[in-house]
Each structure stands twice: as structure tokens, then as C-alpha cells.
């Protein structure tokens, strides 16, 4: 079996790697240099890693920019043993690329994403749209739906938000997030922080922390000032971590979920 199979048809290697071809045109750049220009990328999910990455046919990679890694992290990336340093734009990036120990992907090279790992390529594009953090998972949905539900939020018994015009964001594998208009949130009870995060589905978020401190984790409130088009309905709205506050929807108090976002004080 080769990585030139039909897009959307997943396969699993003996090493536990799940992969499937993608029909998207993908390019990766760093320091103004296009290192990857591929019309035959492969999405790869490593065992125990919830998000995918891309691997590319060697013929669609600037292999002339790759050098055998000086200090390869042998054994990472599902036991990979072949790593490359990237030399482009007058600089060098250690262990920016590697090959997987799988016959199905033997002729493919994968790259780190600099904005996520600090090495690899700085900018990635699917068709003409720049993407961030990691490739979008074709088996994951993110739907932002305007609603008329009555949403109340409390922290330690203090009401901090009350609205009947939320936008509900449904994201595969995560609790429903309730995005609320700013005028319906007591933003004066919070202070902005320097924390920010990037999401390949929503964009870049800014955060606020609860001024009173108490046992509330930092950065409990966030907003996307300029979300990606698919999540445009949440532009400028505010959302709380369900895991750290008390949310009541149409009179029903929601149980606090436990997820990988749960943070202890």
C-alpha cells in the first residue's frame, strides 16, 4: 500500500501511525523560502497525539535545503531515526524535518511547525489560505451557531455574565463553549493578560484573568478579535472555561467538565 491512495481513506501502519492522503495543495515557507510545495500531502496521526501533521513526497520538498541532523532526537516521532536540519534564508533550524519508520511513508518527509515547536517552517498554506498551529483535522467539525438561550455565568457565587443572545460553539471532542456579547459580561471584574493561543479552526485568542484571584485559574476568559472565516460568528465575543466557572443554561446548572484544558489553581 502506498501513500498515493484515495483522499479520505485512512490507513494504519504496523507502528500504529494513522495516515490518509489529502487533496489539498499545501505549501510551507520559512525566511521567505518555499521549502514545501505539495499537491499530494499526507495527513499523519501519531499514536497518542490528538492532532495531525503533514508528510510530503520527497519530490515536492526542497531536499537541497536539508542536512543530516547534527543532534537527532532519535526515537521521537514514533521511533524515527532519520532527522534533518533545515538551512534556509541564511539560518539553520535543528531537527526541522524527519522521516517515519514505516514502509507506507518511506518516501515522505514531515516537518515541524515553528509556531508550535520553535523549529521547522514559519508559514503554512492550504490552497491560498494560511493555516496555523497544525493541519485541520478533516474528521473534526467546528460550528458556531447564534442562539437565544439564556446563559448565566457565576464565579464563586458572583454573577459575571447574563445574556439571551449567545453564540454556541460546537467543537468535536470538547464541551460546548458559550460566546457572549461584551456588554453582557462584567469585564470590569477581569484584567487582560499577555497570554495568547492559536487555533487552526478559530484563530488567535486574547485572555483575561479574574481580578479577585481566589481559586480561579488564570486566563479563564478569552476572545477572538479576528477569527478565521469558519468561526466568524464569535468575532469579539467572550467565552469562559466551563471547567472553571459555573454556567447555567435555560435554568439548568451545567456540570463542570474535566478535559485537557482543566487547570488547577
Give your account of this protein's structure.
By secondary structure, this protein is mainly beta. The chain is 3% helix and 42% strand. It is built from two helices and 23 strands. The protein has helices at residues 76-79, 114-117, and strands at residues 11-12, 18-21, 26-30, 33-38, 42-45, 53-57, 66-68, 82-88, 91-99, 108-111, 123-126, 129-131, 142-146, 151-155, 158-163, 167-171, 177-180, 190-199, 203-210, 221-223, 238-240, 246-249, 252-253. It has an eight-stranded antiparallel β-sheet with strand order 1-2-5-6-10-9-8-7, with no helix packed on it. A seven-stranded antiparallel β-sheet has the order 13-16-17-21-20-19-18, with no helix packed on it. A hairpin with a 2-residue loop joins strand 8 (82-88) and strand 9 (91-99). It starts with 10 loop residues before the first strand and ends in a 12-residue tail after the last strand.
SSE layout:
Blueprint: E1 11-12, E2 18-21, E3 26-30, E4 33-38, E5 42-45, E6 53-57, E7 66-68, H1 76-79, E8 82-88, E9 91-99, E10 108-111, H2 114-117, E11 123-126, E12 129-131, E13 142-146, E14 151-155, E15 158-163, E16 167-171, E17 177-180, E18 190-199, E19 203-210, E20 221-223, E21 238-240, E22 246-249, E23 252-253
Antiparallel strand pairs: 1-2, 2-5, 3-4, 3-11, 5-6, 6-10, 7-8, 8-9, 9-10, 11-12, 13-16, 14-15, 14-22, 16-17, 17-21, 18-19, 19-20, 20-21, 22-23
